[in-house]
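Lay summary

Proteins are chains of building blocks that fold into shapes. Our project writes down both the chain and a compact code for its shape. Here are two examples, one after the other.
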Amino acid sequence: MPDEYDDIRRGLSRYERGLYFELGRAREQGETPERGWVRQFEINIGRDTRRLDSARTDGRGTRGVERKSGRVNEREAREQLRVERAGLESGQLTHSRWETVEGEKLPDKVREDMQALARDFPGQFHHQVISRADALRAMQLGRSLMSKQLELIRAHELVRADRARKRLENIREIVRTRKAREEKAREERARVEREAAVRVAREFAPPEQARTREDNREKGQPPPVPQRTPEQERENARTLAKQERDNARALAIENGLSHQMMGILGLNSNTTPPMIDAEQARARAEADRNRSIHQQRERERAQAREQSRIRGD
């Protein structure tokens, strides 16, 4: 006849049943991280790997606990017991305790294997049957503990997401500011080049152009702007950029900046520093963030699938 233990398990998945039972029993038995206990601990025994529900180091070996909240799967349990026998023989396992719930199915072969281990390793292997009332209390406690952990995880994820959003906003603001500064510098260079070109044209114009300019001045017309070749434009830009770097370098030396700091500011080189592509920087930052979130979710899904596959009812 169904009881309260059946009722609480009915609304849970297999993974949740095992998880809540393990958490509750571990807390009741004092198996806490502060005392050196860890959950889902893997130990390599020969060519096999045994994952223990709860474990801690015990001298040079490991003390482990296996908990079954429902019926015991015969094939899986016998394989686990086979590996534990090898671990007890080698000394890698110093003590093993199995907990099953009263009234839940325990195959005869599994029971016989447990009895053989208890006989061959007295004081090292122990099978404990948990009453259904105690199992119910452990399940309720485990669910409460997990709920609190999820609240902490959600709060942590929200804080982490907010930090990532703020970092992205800062990157975008830096890119926008730098882009605006570079655009302003380009406009200033273009203005200086135009003024320099006008001065050069006035000083070195042929006599015919000079007379035309004088005639235009007398008539109140602006002087014609000389046309320059693309090579002349590039050469003027390089000259002005070099002048700007020389002026900045002189000002830095005058104010006592170190050679290292001048190198950081790009004043030790005559090469014009490359300009940042704002769109490329933004796209790279967003791609890094999306890749990090995707990898984290994939790891969590893989871990959940592995735990669900290994853990029995």
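And here is the second example, written the same way.
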Amino acid sequence: MATITASSVSAPSMALAAFPEVRHDHLRGSGCPRNLTNIAIAIHGDKRRMTRICNDEGSAETTSMVVFVLLFPGYFFYQCAVAFGWFPAVLGGYFGIISAGLLPLLVVAFARLVLIKPRAFGMVDALFAFIVILNCLVSGLSYIVTYWDYRNEVFLQSASGVLFVVTCYMLARTLAIDKSQVKKVLWVSFVAMVLTVGLSSEDGVFNLRSVSGDDALGTYQGISRSVVATALMVICLAEKRLETVLAFVLAVVVLFLAGARSEFVQYLAATLLLAVVVSWRRLATSMVMLGVFSVSVLAVAVLGEKVLELVPQTRILELLDLGSATSYLEREILLSNAIETIVKYPFLGSYGSYYHTVGKGGYAHNLLSAWVDFGLIGFVSYVVILLVMAGKVFVGLVADRLTSNESRLAFVFFVFSTIAFAFSKDYSYMFSGFAVGFVSRYEVLRRKALKRSGK
């Protein structure tokens, strides 16, 4: 350890006193500011150790980016390669195997970038941890004490849900969203997906199962999930308004061709609401957005079928007549079953009971599914974390009007996931992990900013 006199460390000590986050938060990768690194070295007296910390954090951020690309754009391209006969189907459904295989690397990255940091967690993280533990305890105990023929399927479904949500949470906490390399990778991946859909659609419909005749391939929901995750990242991190508009339009076209109605509606709602909030003080922009939306609605209302004949006949058009949509009617039945179960078991719920009547996938496609599986305490836990996140997001609206990358990501993934919980997805929906992670990340960032300003 180097010997430092009092006079030689007085200036660095004062600097660190003014910026206490320096030694933890700004020493990242090869981009560590030299003057701040030297200050930390003067205090700690170990140049090798500080260099190693910088390099470790840089490699951890790279690991996180690689995991995201492999899971979301990677899922899309793997399913396409299998459907087109370019690659054998050796990875099954892909997402589960890849998530489990990459989890150790992501945990290490999470430990290096988040766990070792001071004040890295808040109320949102505590609630999230409680929900994850509750999921694990209930599913694990149910597997041990029950002897259903399908208990393996129920447990695997629960374990997969926890794995996917936790993976998305750790990605949201560790992605280096401010680095230009990350933005370039996201843009390249997104454009490649857009081109693939545009060049591979048949009669304006992108359906990999019809291309290959293999029903084991990824569904339109899985394909759309990859597109949405990448598109939302691109939109929130875009530095120019033209990039934002281009990404928004391209994603709308791709989701329309893919035919995933829930993802299409949730994406439109989240991104349009983001645009309104960000530009609400720009009268011209707001008027243009309102005008385009009004003209579109008016055209469909007046011209009706003539307009619809001009667009590809995908499942998205069923949104205009939900009453005749088979899946909508089926979900109404599942909702009714869930309410009956809740009335019968209001406090403890009845974990996996839908398997008795409907089978796999027979859960309510909304947050009532948490009440069915985990009882009242489970449902209340999800409602509470959503309310807490809503408060954090509202603070972001008031504090910086979504001018930072963190606040925009927190807002858009929170809105997207909340709508999903309300109308289309069960409690294990993986994008809720993104929402929790980005809201928590923004909360930590804002807390540091307030401390720096002395408030």
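What can we say about the second shape? The chain has three domains: 1-45, 57-110+147-286, 328-455.
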